[in-house]
């Protein structure tokens, strides 16, 4: 007996090109704004974005540049296992986050950001942005590619897998972040990944790109 039930082909609705484009635009804008909020309060998220953010704190190199460079090796896995369309969409999404993370810092300014508020809103924006991308079979490079592959191939929840990876990245930030910022970052990682785990269950969303 199959481990999961397959939806009838008639129940699957293919996304239109404009729907994929709009989801990619809004998703990457949300993520770029979430990353800006995190960077202004010295918080840390998980996944490849979190690793890039951590390296930007240490090296003072701009987040977008590091984020783009870290993702380059993961495109091979995306190409081989998830197809060229997924790889192309993911490459575009990473490029847009790289661009928007630079522009958002010019578009938005903060005179005060409460760290707890920044954690909830920043992680909420990132989680919602990732959900938009995942629903349109687009990753954000790195761990996202691996998470989507494991969910589609083995049924492992993308959110739960990413939560484990994120906690490992946060564990490596003890020497960089203040204890209160580290605890808030753990809370933020939970919000991001629970957003994905609750809303992106296998078989629940039947739209395809």
Automatic annotation (TrEMBL):
Keywords: Cell membrane, Membrane, Transmembrane, Transmembrane helix. GO terms for cellular component: plasma membrane. It comes from the Bacteria. The chain crosses the membrane at residues 21-39, 51-74, 86-104, 116-134, 154-176, 182-199. Pfam families: YitT_membrane (PF02588). It is a multi-pass membrane protein. Its main location: membrane. It is found in: Cell membrane. PANTHER family: UPF0750 MEMBRANE PROTEIN YITT, UPF0750 MEMBRANE PROTEIN YITT-RELATED. This is YitT family protein. It comes from Azospirillum lipoferum. The lineage of its organism: Bacteria, Pseudomonadati, Pseudomonadota, Alphaproteobacteria, Rhodospirillales.
């Amino acid at each position: 007996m199959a481990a999961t039930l397959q939806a009838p082909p008639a129940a699957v609705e293919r996304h239109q090109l404009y729907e994929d484009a709009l989801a990619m635009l809004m998703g990457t804008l949300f993520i770029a704004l979430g990353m800006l909020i995190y960077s202004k309060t010295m918080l840390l998220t998980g996944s490849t974005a979190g690793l890039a953010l951590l390296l930007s704190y240490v090296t003072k190199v701009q987040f977008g540049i590091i984020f783009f460079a870290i993702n380059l090796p993961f495109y091979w896995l995306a190409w081989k296992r998830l197809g060229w369309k997924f790889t192309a969409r993911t490459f575009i999404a990473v490029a847009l986050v790289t661009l928007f993370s630079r522009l958002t810092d010019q578009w938005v300014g903060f005179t005060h950001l409460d760290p707890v508020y920044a954690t909830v809103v920043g992680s909420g924006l990132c989680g919602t942005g990732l959900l938009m991308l995942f629903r349109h079979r687009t990753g954000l490079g790195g761990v996202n590619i691996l998470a989507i592959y494991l969910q589609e191939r083995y049924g492992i929840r993308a959110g739960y897998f990413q939560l484990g990876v994120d906690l490992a990245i946060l564990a490596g930030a003890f020497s960089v972040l203040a204890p209160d910022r580290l605890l808030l970052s753990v809370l933020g990682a939970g919000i991001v990944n629970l957003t994905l785990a609750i809303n992106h269950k296998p078989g629940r969303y039947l739209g395809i790109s």
